[in-house]
Amino acid sequence: MKKIIRIIREQIKLQRKSYLQLKELEWAHIYHDSIRGKKALENLPLNIGRWAGNYAFFYVLHRILSDFKPKSILEFGLGESTKFISTFIDDTMIECDHCIIEHNEEWKALFNEKFSLSNQSEIKVLELVEKSYKGFNYKSYNTIENQINKTFDLYIVDGPLGSPRYSRFDIVSLAKRFKQDDQFIIMFDDYERHSEKETAHELIDVLEKNNISIKTKEFIGNKSVLVIATSKYKYVTSV
After folding, report:
1. Distance separating alpha carbons of residues 73 and 225, to the nearest angstrom
2. Count of other CB atoms within 10 angstroms of residue 176
3. Other C-beta atoms within 10 Å of 92: how many?
4. Spacing of C-alpha 51 from chain mean position
5. What is this structure's pTM?
6. Are the C-beta atoms of residues 54 and 192 closer than 8 Å to each other?
7. What would the pLDDT profile of 110-138 be if each residue is shown by its tens digit?
8. How far is Cα 189 from Cα 206, in angstroms, rounded to an integer?
9. Which of 37, 69, 165, 224 is most buried (CB neighbours < 10 A)?
10. Phi/psi at 167 (nearest 5 deg)?
C-alpha cells in the first residue's frame, strides 16, 4: 500500500510539473506577442527564468509599465527586470524615478560593465543583515527603513536572496507606513515558495489593517508572481 501511495504521489508531481511547463510556454507566447513592435524591448537580451523572473513575471511587468506608466518604481534586487525597466524608461517613460536596492557591490560593478542604465535608474547598495520575525531570522537590507522615505507607484520584490522563513520581509516593514489613500502595485516574485507566501500573507494583513483596499492575483508558470493592487490599479489583476 505504501508503495502504491508513493507511486501515485510521484505521478501527481510529474503531472503538476508538466502542467506548469505548459503554462510557462503559454506565457512565453503571450509575452512575445505583447512586446511585438517595440524594438527596444524586442532587441533587449534577457535571461528569463531560473533566478530571474519567468515569462509570467515579465508579461505582467510589461503590462504594468505600458498600461499604467508608474512615475516611481522601487525594485528589490538588481537583475534582468532592472534591464527591462530601465530600457522601457528610456524608450517610453523618461519621467519615471527608478530606485534599485542591491546588496552586492561586486554584482553592481559587473552589471554596470555589461549594461548602461537609464539616467532615471539609481542603484543603492545596502549590505545584508539578519533580522527576526516571530522567532525566525531573515535576510534584510540594512537601514532600508531609513533609506526609503517615500511611497512608490510600483514595488518589485525580487530580493534579497531567499530566507527559510518570512523571506524578503522588508516590504512588510515599509508597508506599515502606507496610508489609506496611497495607490500602488506590488509584484512579489517566487510566490510558489512557502517562505515568500508567509511574507506575502503578512503583507496583505498589514495592508488590510491599514484599511487599504486591495485586489490580488497569482500568475502561475514555472514560478509564480503575486500581484497586489490598490483601487487605482485594480485592473492589473485581470491582464
Report:
1. 17
2. 12
3. 14
4. 12
5. 0.92
6. no
7. 999 999 999 999 999 999 999 999 999 99
8. 19
9. 224
10. -70, 145
